[in-house]
Amino acid sequence: MPMVLSSPAEALGEHESVARNLIVELVRDRHERTADAHDAANTRFGILFGSQWRDLLRDSCDAFKDRGFGSYKLAPGGYSLPVVNDALVFVTRLPDDEDAVRGFASSVTRVNGFFVQPRLEMFGESFIDGGDEIRNPDELARFEKLVKAAGAVMPVVLVLVHSSPRQLTSIDWAVAEYRLGSVYLHGKETIWSQEFAGAETAVDVESFDSGTPAVPVVALQAREASPDA
After folding, report:
1. How far apart are the first and last CA of the chain?
2. What is the pLDDT along the chain (229 residues), one digit of tens a residue?
3. Distance between CA atoms of residues 39 and 111, nearest Å
4. Side-chain half-sphere of 118: how many Cα atoms within 13 Å?
5. Partners of residue 199 on adjacent β-strands
6. What Cα–Cα distance (Å) separates residue 159 from each residue in 37, 39, 114?
C-alpha cells in the first residue's frame, strides 16, 4: 500500500507557495470569464457555466508550463495535468459535498490519474549498460530516489473550486487518495474564499461606541503670499 502524503504542502514541497498563488489567480480569472459569458448568453441553464472544468484543466496546465513545470497527459481522455514536485495537480469544479468527492473518480481517465508513476530520468553515463560504479554522493542519492520511485505513483493534489454563476465561493485543495473505487482527501485546506477576499478589502475603521473618535491631524502646507496679495 503506497504511503499517502498528509497535505498539499508536503506534496508540492518548495513550490507550494508558487502553486497556491498561481491556482488562485487562474481560478478567479476563469470564473470571471465564465460568469460573464453566462450572463451574456442570458440562459436559464448552467450548462455553459458548468463546462468550465475543461478550461480549468487547460488553464492550469498552460500556466504551470509557462513557469517551467512539466505536464502529464492522461489516457484515454487525453487532457494534461501539471506536474509539480512529482505531484499531479488536478483543478476541477465540484459541489461542496462529500459524496461528490467520493465519486470524483467516475471515469477511466480520472482513475488513471491515481496510478501515474514519476518519470525516471537518466542521470549520467556511469549507469549505461550496467557501467561504472557510483561516482559521488549526489549520484548515489539520485539513484536511491529512482529505486524508491520505481514502484511509486505520483500523489494527486486535487483543487476543488466551489462556485455558481453569481459567485466564486471558495477554492480548497487536498491530497486525494483513491481507495476501492472512492476518493478520500487528506490535509484539506481553503486557499481562497469570498470571506478572505472581503477581509482583505475591508477598510479598517476604529469603533467609537464610547468616547470621542480620534480626529486625523492634517498638516496644512503654508503658501507663499503672491506679490499681488
Report:
1. 90
2. 567 899 999 999 999 999 999 999 999 988 887 655 544 545 544 444 456 788 899 999 999 999 999 999 999 999 999 999 999 999 998 888 899 999 999 999 999 999 998 875 544 444 433 444 556 677 666 665 665 555 688 999 999 999 877 678 999 999 999 999 999 999 999 999 988 665 554 444 444 344 444 444 444 444 444 444 4
3. 34
4. 18
5. none
6. 23, 25, 14
> CB of 66 within 8 A of CB of 24?
no
User: Nearest CA to 174 among 190, 161, 157?
Assistant: 157
Rounded CA separation 97/80 (Å): 25
Would the pTM count as exceeding 0.90? no
How, if at all, do strands 182-193 and 80-84 pair? unpaired
Helix (H, G, I), strand (E, B) or coil at 24: helix
Longest dimension (CA), the chain: 96
Rounded Cα–Cα distance for residues 105 and 178 (Å): 8
Q: Give me the helix-helix angle, 52-66 and 16-41, nearest 10°.
A: 140
> Tell me, what amino acid is at 127?
F
Instruction: Of 18, 3, 4, give the one whose Cα is nearest residue 185.
Output: 4
- Which amino acid, 103? G
- 3 state DSSP class of 190: strand
Distance CA 164, CA 49 (A): 8
Place of cell 508536503: 10
Lookup result for grid cell 495537480: 89
